[in-house]
Every structure is written in structure tokens, then in C-alpha cells.
Amino acid sequence: MILLYRLTRFISVIFGVLLLTFLLIHLVPGDPIEVMLGESASTVDRAELRRDLGLDKPLIYQFGHYLNQLAHGDLGRSIHTKESITSLIAARYPATVKLAFVSLLIALIVGVPLGVYAALRANRWQDFIVTIISVRFAAMPVFWLGPVLMLFFAVWLGWLPVSGMDNHGAIVLPAITLGLGLSAILTRMTRTSLLEVLNDDYIRTARAKGLSARTVVLRHALRAAILPIITIVGLQMGSLLAGTVITETIFSWDGIGRLLVESIEKRDYPVTQACVLVVALSYVIVNLATDILYQLADPRMRSY
Amino acid sequence: MKNFSYAILGVWLIAVLAGHVMHLDPNAIDLNVVLHGPSALHWLGADDLGRDLLARILSGVQVSFMVAMVVTAVTMVVGVFVGLLAGFYGGRVDQILMQITDIFLAFPGILLAIAFAAVLGPGLDNLIFALCLTGWVSYARLTRGQTMSLRNRQHVLAAQSLGATVPRLLLLHILPLIASLLVVEATYSLASVMIAEASLSFLGLGIQAPHASWGAMLRDAVRYMLVAPHYVLIVGACMMSLILAINLCGDYLRDSLDVRTEKQI
């Protein structure tokens, strides 16, 4: 039942996202054609682009056309290179997914154990230090963390490449830049949620049975505490995806975020529109997947 | 921690005031000190055009703070209005309004603000507009949830049966009870709007040259990182300190006002 409800909501949200991204191009002040091509463009070029984008038709027709094109996997053409946007995005998207995935992995590897550690040492100095550090990292915007990491590890120490994506080490710095913020959030979340569980009766029972502290924490407590963490990961995938825009720009990582920034600089609005759409859709789908995962992880949720 | 955050905010306030008193000019160019590090004349060094970094940072923080204030105020008013209506009336109104917020929430982070700012064109007005357009949603969600739970409280029903009008009910009987929650939310949002503004300026979508803005300064700083590492470190450290201080203030307010909301993450 819940799944069905989620699914209908999912579809209505997708529709809204499509509508909003479609309307984006109509928000351009004045004549979008003139903004995109510049004042010196010839009348023929203008008329051609206007026809190409369908801007000479009524709005409702345009939206229908837009949906129809999307259904056929056609995102239009870049104004500048005339390339198909679908293939532009197909070329760049895997790099972003890779970056987001590695960042998530780093966040989980760093965040969850630190959170467990802080919870087990709650209100002692170790906990205090972990909390301070995680508050600091949560407050650190990627456009500062990125350059600083680059400065230390690539420029001064020379351990890792400064930017680009030619060798395997290249993903390390951008992924850490993106992942650290999330890991800070995960640390705090793991700590809180584990602390709540640790006071439960069944944990006392497990201890009383004589199970080792390790088994109690990892097998009994963490399994229950992991649920809020799944939700957080799903929700935070959004800032991760948005963060790729700036991180990719800093590290010259050829993903969809950089494509978005390039298109903005060139005023290539159809590309901008398509990038925004693809990132938003990814996020919505990740969230739906999180919901489903949540149901799988928590047997109590299945009975509804 | 509380005193620490107050101290940072105090230092910033004094620095800004001192900057005004001393008539620091953020746009004065001195080509002899291009990208020089800190010195007696330029305490924090100079940027790529030989402009005093201290002066630019102080001028940047004012713009940034102004943007944060305006955006927070506007988004709060709009969001609270929408949230009150949705929470109070429920049913169809609620459904439609929440459907709209759902759509806005489907865009991750500042992506929508980037998109709006991109099509509207760069500039301070458009930046504020873009951030307002996307920022009201969290207030709407928060207010709606609270209003729904307060709507059937005894004192609200009593006032209603005494003939209180809807605006009166909302403003005098419901809003005061969620005000502390909103204040806390607003404090956090000041910090996040400052980050968003800097992000947009970093991408070249915000405040335009020659006006100073932290985001744009960071972008230049990254460009000259190899020759002038002090530039990126100083601007970043300033930004971090301010955002951290505001967030800590938020934590303190939350604890002292005893606001029980869903866990702040």
C-alpha cells in the first residue's frame, strides 16, 4: 500500500520536475533567442533557433512537444555545437555517478565507525573531539575544502594529481572533498541513533546473556541504528549531487556538473535545462530507492 | 562553545565597523603588491589586482550578510504563510500546496537556485530572487507540520468558538507557539544562505566585479593558488569562522529555547 502511495507521489513529482525545468527557459528575461545568440546574430539564425526550440508555438504545445521528445530519449540539441544533448549527457553522466559513489563510500567508511566510536565513548573527551571535528566538517563548504585539499596534497606534497581525470589517483581528492561533509553528518547521526538504541531493554538482555561487547554493538545495536542512517544517506544524496557541480568545476572532473557550469557560461540554455533535469531525476529516483530499501531493512514496515 | 561563537561574531562586527571608520577602500588598486602575502600595510595581503584583502573581505561579508538577511526574511514570511494555510485548512489546500513543495524539494540542494540564477542572468537582484524562489520550502514544511498539530489544541478551538477570525487564530494563537522553532530555523538558514550565495558567486552567477563577494574571491583565489596560497586560505578561513559561529549560535538557541524538532542534521 505504502509503496503504491509512494509510486503515485513519485509520478506526480516527476511531472512537476518536468514542468518546472521546461518553464526554466521561459524565465530568461527578454527574448531568450537574443540572449543565447547575442545581438549580432542574423535574422535567419534567430528564426532557425526559434523554430528549432519551438518557441514560436503556443506554450502548451511546446510542453507537449518537450514531453514527447523526452519520451523518445531526445533532450534536444546544443545551441553551440549542435550536438545531441542526450549523447553529451551520456558521455558525462558516468563520471558523476562514479564520483558520487566513491564519495558516498568514503563518507560511510569514515562516518559510521567514527559515530559508533563516539557513541561508545559518549560524553567523554573522545566523543567531544569527534563531535567538534564533525561540526567543523559539516560547516565546511566544498569550494573551500576542495582548494585546500588540492593545495596540501597535490601542490605542496605532490601525492595526488591536481585535477583532471587521467589516472586513478585523480578521483581521490574530489571524492574526499564531497564525501567529508556527508561523513560528518553520518557521524553525528550514527552517534545519536546508536545512543538511543543502546539504552533499550534488548541490549541489556544481550549483555546479560554474556555476549561480547563487540557482538552486542555490531550485531544487535547497529542493526537497529542503521535505519535512520539509510534515510539520511538518501536525503543527503541530494547535496552530494548538487555538490558535484562545484567540486567538478574545481577539479576539472568531466562530469555532468561541469557540463552544467560550462553551459551556463556559454548561455547554452537547452543544455542547462537538460543537466538540471537529469540531476533532479537522479535524486528523485535515489529517494524512491531509499524508501524501498528502508522497507526491506525494517521488517516492521512491511506489514503496512 | 557559546562564548566562543559570540566572540567570533563580535570580532566580525568590530572588524566591519572598524573598516568603516578607517575608510578601507575595497576597490583601491596598488599594483606594487599584486598577490603579496600579509604585510604591515596590507594585513591580510593583496589580491590579483593589488587590492587590499582585508578591505575586500570586510566589504564581502556585508554584502553576504545582507543577502542572507533579505533571503531569510522573505523566505520565512512566504514559507510560514504557505505552511500556516496548508496546516490550518488541511484537505485540498494542503494537498495542492504540499504537492508544490514536493516538486521544489525534488531538486537537490542549490541546483534549482543555480538554474534560476543561470537563466535570469548574473547580478545581485537575480541572485536574491533565485535564492528566495527556492528557499521558502523548508519553512513551509516546518510550519505546516507544527500548525497541524496545534490546530486542534484547546486554546485554538476555544478562540475559534468565541468567533476569532482565521487570521487572528493563525497570528495570535498558533504563530507565537512556533516562533521559537522558526527563529532557530532562521539562524541555520542564515548560514546556509551565505554558503549558497558564495556558491553561486563562485560559479560567477552572483555579485559581479568589481564588488567584493566571498564566492567570487574564492574563485579568483583558486586560480592563483600556486603563486598566492595565502589568498585561498585566508578567504576560506574567514568564511568558515563566520559560518561555524552562526551554526553554533543556532545550536545554542535550539537548546536554550528547548525546541524539540526532528533532529537537526
Task: Please outline what is shown here.
Chain A has 304 residues and is mainly α. Chain A is built from 13 helices and no strands. In chain A, helix 7 crosses helix 10.
Mind explaining what this structure looks like?
The complex is a heterodimer of chains A (304) and B (265). By secondary structure, chain A is mainly alpha-helical. Chain A folds into 2 domains: 31-74, no CATH class; 90-303, MetI-like (MetI-like fold), CATH 1.10.3720. Chain A is built from 13 helices and no strands. In chain A, helix 5 packs antiparallel against helix 6, helix 5 crosses helix 8 (172-198) and helix 9 packs across helix 10. The longest helix of chain A has 39 residues, at 213-251. The radius of gyration of chain A is 24 Å and the shape is globular. Chain A starts with a helix and ends with a helix. The model of chain A has no long low-confidence stretch (mean pLDDT 81). With 265 residues, chain B is mainly α. Chain B is 72% helix and 0% strand. Chain B has 9 helices and no strands. Chain B has helices at 2-21, 53-89, 91-105, 111-120, 124-150, 154-161, 166-202, 214-223, 229-256. In chain B, helix 2 (53-89) runs antiparallel to helix 3 (91-105), helix 2 (53-89) packs antiparallel against helix 7 (166-202) and helix 8 (214-223) packs antiparallel against helix 9 (229-256). Residues 261-265 of chain B have low confidence and may be disordered. The chains are: A mainly alpha (304), B mainly alpha (265). At the A-B interface, helix 1, helix 6, helix 7, helix 8 and helix 10 of A face helix 3, helix 4, helix 7, helix 8 and helix 9 of B.
